[in-house]
Amino acid sequence: MSEWQFIDWLRSKTGSLGNIGDPIVLGPGDDAGIVRLGPETIAAVDMLMDGVHFDLNKIEARLAGRKALAVNLSDLAAMGARPICALVSLALPESGGLAMGREIMEGILALAKEFDVRILGGDTNSWSGKAVISVTVLGQPLPNRAPLTRSGAKPGDWVLVTGSLGGSLGHGDKLGQGRHLTFIPRVQVATQLNLSFEITSMIDLSDGLATDASHIARESGLTIRLDQDHIPMSSDIPDGSPEERLKHAMTDGEDFELMFTAHPDIAREILISDAFEGVPVTHIGECRAGDPVVQWLDGTTVMAHGYQHRLD
Amino acid sequence: MSEWQFIDWLRSKTGSLGNIGDPIVLGPGDDAGIVRLGPETIAAVDMLMDGVHFDLNKIEARLAGRKALAVNLSDLAAMGARPICALVSLALPESGGLAMGREIMEGILALAKEFDVRILGGDTNSWSGKAVISVTVLGQPLPNRAPLTRSGAKPGDWVLVTGSLGGSLGHGDKLGQGRHLTFIPRVQVATQLNLSFEITSMIDLSDGLATDASHIARESGLTIRLDQDHIPMSSDIPDGSPEERLKHAMTDGEDFELMFTAHPDIAREILISDAFEGVPVTHIGECRAGDPVVQWLDGTTVMAHGYQHRLD
């Protein structure tokens, strides 16, 4: 099967165009895709590689594809934006690449359908290396709501987080097979938050709370203080001492939950709201004037050892 | 240097935001970028891998980065659209990845500056494999001009091509170091064509004229007949018989010239126009009702052996 036959298969899966209200003007198969977005286009890209972000010796390629789209939907969620469409570029191994490419795309397409996201275009290649998946997702602001950035937190704001943290990768026999492959991007929660409440900043937790909180601290120019007794601990964290378990929650990364800030009055409303369809929201800290660092309540520094690709 | 220090460096290179008329609302460093585009967003992605699309043992990483953006600008040119911004995802080797990543980005940034294209976002990773560069470019239609697709050619239209074809990869001692690394994306020519003439279809020549003409034939549902005596032959084609040289021009690929169609009256105007800043335009064939194939003037089939990534 050639690249174009692959594109034909993909076009057969991505549906017809031109339905009333369909934002996709031109889908895969031309030099570029065309989509109606506005008033602003919100775009994010993430590249996932076999052996780094997933291990195709241990998991189905479908799950790798799912994850590649999911991490991007999580980025759009963190902007309080609506994802509309995605472009997918693939490098596939020369041997077995076609079957793998179809499985990857099936994982992407299934999740895309759940979130009403369309495939706008792509590029498919084969090579002697391992599989690489790069997904770019495009979206637009929610009606009359500005996107939420990392830079809007104010001293006095409370810090909140969705879900529970740590152990996302899995452990023991299931190492690499944890919820980092199957998490639900928090698009709906983020939509509710941005539509119904004044959120001052938001980020998705990809590198671990310690590191991602430091991004908010830095971009907003303030100190974040976290309460170590209120960090929501995932049941995926392996047994260990309280200190070990806290470290998992703070630094394992790939939680893909939302951390966000809001004025205390707003935060209290959020904490008693039932708008989030069973997703828990926890008050974990506060913002204060000061250096752009992350501390515990007693003022000691939270060390950031979150997941980070070092470039040496 | 960490990923975030790399992002800091990138932000220092991508300039300040918020200038009047600047379409970039939010650049690299948040969960997503924000850009004002409209009325439609035109998006293309291409992934280039070390050892396939370039060889970092033989060329500077800067040229690989340049090519990764250039092929995407060529796609936007082929839509008759204006490129505005790009997202870049990188997989870099663990050893020496930082220096390589900077060189790649410098190549991208230099070409971006030439075309007034901004970097909207990205993702940088390291791994045990070779370098992979995926670039997504976003653009918008020219004022009051629809994008040009592959599907609008009409029977009777003439087929034209910019520049000259074949030998793009280089040969002999210079194999891999040819103009596929340094070509100028035909954005300005495409802009002139779409603004000043009624073009019915357009494609950029990435896989070779034989193959790319077949895309127009197929998407427009007609036969394309090419005149083998009028295919513009690049001086980069190695010595050989006329048949060998024609095969290079038809199938080498990576010419990144534009093939397009127009009514004969329009085509004649284009051929005598001096609007293309020295880029030659050649009349190479015509469209006629019939099966979606590419033929020579005598009706024999032009075999497509253009560059194509096979997925086995």
Overview of this structure, please?
2 copies of one chain form a homodimer. Chain A starts with a helix and ends in a 16-residue tail after the last strand. In chain A, the strands form 3 sheets. Chain A has a 6-stranded mixed β-sheet with strand order 8-10-7-11-9-12. By secondary structure, chain A is α+β, with helices and mostly antiparallel strands. Chain A folds into 2 domains: 139 residues, 60s Ribosomal Protein L30, Chain: A, CATH 3.30.1330.10; 139 residues, PurM-like C-terminal domain (Phosphoribosyl-aminoimidazole Synthetase, Chain A, domain 2, Alpha-Beta Complex). In chain A, β1 and β2 form a beta hairpin. The first copy, chain A, is built from 7 helices and 12 strands. Chain A is 28% helix and 25% strand.
Record keyword descriptors for this entry.
homodimer, 312 residues, alpha+beta, 60s Ribosomal Protein L30, Chain: A, Phosphoribosyl-aminoimidazole Synthetase, Chain A, domain 2, six-stranded mixed beta sheet, four-stranded mixed beta sheet, 7 helices, globular, disordered C terminus
| Domain count of chain A | 2
Categorize the overall geometry of chain A.
globular
CATH topology of the largest domain in chain A: 60s Ribosomal Protein L30, Chain: A
- Largest interface, counted with CB-CB under 8 A? A-B, 76 and 76 residues
Over the alpha carbons, how many angstroms does the gyration radius of chain A reach? 20 Å
Residue fraction in strands of chain A: 15-25%
- Average pLDDT taken over every residue of chain A: 92
Helix content of chain A: 25-40%
Q: Give the second-level CATH assignment, the architecture of the largest domain in chain A.
A: 2-Layer Sandwich
Q: Give the oligomeric state.
A: homodimer
Task: Give the number of DSSP strands of chain A.
Answer: 12
Question: Which CATH first-tier class of the largest domain in chain A would you pick?
Answer: Alpha Beta
Total count of helical runs of at least 4 residues of chain A: 7
Following the backbone from N to C, one meets helices and strands of chain A in this order, namely HEEEHEHEEEHEHEHEHEE
- Note the main sheet of chain A: 6 strands, mixed
**Separation of termini of chain A?**
39 Å
Strand order of the largest sheet of chain A: 8-10-7-11-9-12
Derived from helix and strand composition plus strand pairing, the structural class of chain A reads alpha+beta
- Relevant CATH superfamily of the largest domain in chain A: PurM-like, N-terminal domain
